[in-house]
Design brief:
two-stranded antiparallel ribbon
Length: about 290
Amino acid sequence: MQLQHIIMGTRYKRAKSFFEDIQNKTYAHIKGEALSIQAYGCTGHRIFSDLDILLPRKELADFERILKDNEFYTTLQSRQDKIIMLSSSHQTAPWVKNIEPWGQLNIDLNFDIFWGEYTGKRIDIAEFLSDAMEIEIYGCRIKTLPPIKAMVQLILHHYKDMNSIFLLATRKSIRYNMFKDVYHLLKNNLDTIALDKLYAMSTRYEIIPYVYYILYYTAFLFKDEFLREYIEAFKTPGGEELLNCYGLNKSERREWRVDFQTRLESSSLYELIKDDLTTDDLEKIAINKRVFLG
């Protein structure tokens, strides 16, 4: 744990000049140690490999220039692959910097909190970032989301991971720690993520079914009485319909053949869905592997 803490601290310290250069920009550092502080009260409670930045899409070119100035390079070479990533994803390819002896520091630029397949009302990211707050992480002054918006971002991120056919086919995208983060972020910020406030924000952003989905499975694992009130408030027919399905839009949505506990414990989610995959699904997975995994 101590070595892990040193590695995490090194990553932030090596990114300090980048954070200084974007100090006056519109952005928020999401997940990582920012989430660790908000959910658990201190750094070091989460294991992660990338530093994620959320920013308005129109600011991408400026942030990419600043990354280049700070000796980061992009892993994406093909213009066609970049177009695919920008049109069908929520982020760019990782920006990388070598930090010997700890390997590489990756920074991901996220320009949306929805997924590429999403067809509903989009959230204005500039507005979403308008009340970003400044915190200190390993000596770096960094902007992050207030807890209630961190919760919204986390819920949508986890929903995407749990339902993306590409992610289900290529990694362990349903994990216990996902729900642990949701539980502790909510439990330790009940004043600022009060039920009425979260419900009002979720109504405004039209995400109530997704909030219900993630809170339902969080309560499945964490038997805490306060979660019941949240679940009852967010329960809708649309949310209940999502519980035993996967797929990020209606055209690719299908029912799970196994229960949630089996999904959670499975070492290969691909084995659980492979018999349901269509030719279009397999083609999509192959394209995404090339673009996102190299």
